[in-house]
Amino acid sequence: MTDKQAFDPNAVIAATREAFAPVLKAQQEGFKTFERLARLQYALAGDVLEVGLARVGATFTASTPTELLNKQTALSNQLAERLRERAEEFATVTSDLQAQFGQLGSELTHKATRARKAA
Q1: Confidence (pTM)
Q2: In a domain, 66, yes or no
């Protein structure tokens, strides 16, 4: 009687899923972060466009050069404040991204260490 091991495709699929789970998680987190950054870029472009349109409107509504200068200065200050807020949001996103990938690296190291001990 010969002892043959049967090929179990379910075991192979389960092992593959377990091996690539961290990669899948990293990919999902990467897409979420990419979407978040794209939304921030879109909001930033909207802020710049909005202030640009307000500047054009101020040009047509100002009756004196002094009034125009005051409106333009106020709009510039408004844009600077919005840009500062967006920069803080970008910094938060990058900090979150760094923490997530640091955690992922720790998980991968831990999993590799367990696999090495098991072998």
Answers
A1: 0.69
A2: yes
